[in-house]
Amino acid sequence: MQELFITDNHIHIDLKRGEGLKAAKKFYNSGGRCMILVNKLVKDIGLEPNSVENFERLYNFTIKTAKKIRENIKIKVFVVLGVHPAELYQMYTKLGERGIEIAKEALILASKKVENGEAVAIGEVGFPHFEAPKKIIEVCADFLRFSFEIAKDIDCAVQLHTQSLNKKGYKYLAELAKSVGFNTNKLIKHFANPYIKFCEKLGIMPSIIASEKNIKKALLEGKRFLMESDYIDDPKRPGAVTGPRSVPRVTIKLYKQEILSEDDIEKMHKDYISKIYNVDLD
């Protein structure tokens, strides 16, 4: 078996209070070769989401984490930066309109880091995954529209965080993106439902949590999707959502079962990643 190129499309690594490099080594030793590293929350670095400066500290911490992983483990690491909808909820609740202004300024800062090559995409942005008041949903929709506008201007991908969606919800996301001229082929639904065929029609790229059951269910519809662990690297929730070994382990297991071919894996873990994030993986 030739070495397979395997990417975790959505992972968090916490050098401050999590497993940090140990988690990244678990990923590598299990066969992982590329990770899309998404920033955590401002509170995870011991600060409040009440200033652009604190978001800048969070972004720089994430960029520094990526650099340290590359230096110590020699895998490819690409950074995604944004304002998590749960944090936007908190900001609006505590600060009102000023909270939205800070979030938008933080997103502009994230886009500048994409432009200068420190990051490759905006995310995770979208809607809270828990029940929220109607006004919060409206605030998040406006902010997501703003996110699409920013991403369109710099031609980068957007990673979405939302509540669990039915097909109507996916269609809404695609229409919201198209309303500002954002290319849905750059739209990634993190923690996606296995609507592989439906998402392909919309242009959205689903990113599926890498449990064997989830991936096999997705494969019943097609092979146009990414895999992710959504590992949060939090000692209070060990192994959540799935562990850092999950993406390579599941991929290799399905390869050995001849459910996925080398070509399938090359597309999912390399070709789609390279195209959607505008990165060179050779």
Concise synopsis of the structure shown:
This protein has 282 residues and is an alpha/beta fold. It has a single domain, classed as TIM Barrel, CATH 3.20.20. The protein has ten helices and eight strands.
What descriptive keywords fit this protein?
alpha/beta, TIM Barrel, globular, 8-stranded parallel sheet, 282 residues, single chain
Question: What's the structural blueprint in terms of helices and strands?
Answer:
Blueprint: E1 7-11, H1 21-29, E2 34-38, H2 52-73, E3 76-81, H3 85-95, H4 97-115, E4 121-126, H5 134-154, E5 157-161, H6 167-179, E6 187-189, H7 196-202, E7 205-209, H8 212-219, E8 226-228, H9 246-256, H10 262-277
Parallel strand pairs: 1-2, 2-3, 3-4, 4-5, 5-6, 6-7, 7-8
Helix pairs in contact: 1-2, 2-4, 3-4, 4-5
Description:
By secondary structure, the protein is α/β, with parallel strands linked by helices. The chain has a single domain (8-247, 263-277), classed as Metal-dependent hydrolases (TIM Barrel). Helices cover 49% and strands 13% of the residues. The longest helix is centred in the first third of the chain and has 22 residues, at 52-73.
SSE series: EHEHEHHEHEHEHEHEHH
Overall mean confidence score, pLDDT:
96
Span between termini: 19 Å
Q: What is the count of β-strands?
A: 8
Fraction of residues in helix: 40-55%
